[in-house]
Amino acid sequence: MATIYHDDDADLGVLADETLAVIGYGNQGRSQALNLRDSGLQVIVGSRPDASAEQAREEGFDVVGIAEACRRADAVLLLIPDEIMPEVYERDVAPALQAGDLLDFASGYNVAFGGVTPAPDLDVVLLAPRMIGPGVRDSYVSGEGFPSFVGVHQDATGRARQRMLALARGVGSTRAGCLEMSMHDEASLDLFTEQGFGPAFGCVLTTAVQTLVDAGYPPEAVLLELYMSGELAYTFQKIREVGMLKQMDFHSQTSQYGSITRSANFADLAEPMKERMLRSLDAIRSGEFAAEWSGLREQGAEILAKVKEAREKIPMAEWERRTRAAFGLD
Hints:
nine-stranded mixed sheet, Rossmann fold, 15 helices, single chain, alpha/beta
């Protein structure tokens, strides 16, 4: 049974006398910094001199360099991209930390796969929102909150869990619930969603599109029917609210009967798909993917740029542009 924490498990007072440094003021950094400040905690921002740093100043934060922020802080929230984190940590963060400081990660990736190795005299925790950056802020403002994965990786002070839960409450996550998980498990689940579920779902969707277009249906009608009307997104929202099975009750009996009786047409795909997903999961959990990505770090941007350029030339890209324009979605 998983351990799940709520507001009653967390005491903001644990951090009342501590200075929190949010490193990075991007989507997650901005939202978490604003939420923590609105919860009454002392927050500074550590950033390189760029547009995000200027935005943080305009929004009332004391903004300093990354190393200086880490020196001044009792708790450091490292909210910068995975690919640059090891270099920034070694150069600016690690030398500025002192024994007993709290180091918080929004993803377990670098700790789990060896990109960052915190000193043993630090409290090291995970606070990984299951929500994109703007949603972290919007959910806080609405009062709803958002779920997170949380965990204690190192407890040097004996207070790591208390401090972690105070952070979680400060950003608004214990309102919805925080599920305890290791750095490695959180990173593995996140990567599997991106490398296992995401590609499989994308293959199903694009295959359905191509099947219908090849059968003579207008691309605009196909895209509208399958996802561009917003019905699919709304269905997923209902799945979140009531569950996968109960959301079927929102569809017509014709829809329900057809879905149930024709699901057998695809039953034989489950095992081979599971085998491929397990291969992806094994490569993630073993560190194979992390090693591959680390080795390609200098070439990564170039590879992604080429893929995105090629992506714009496939027929579906043009079909989407036409459909979006026709229905005023641009």
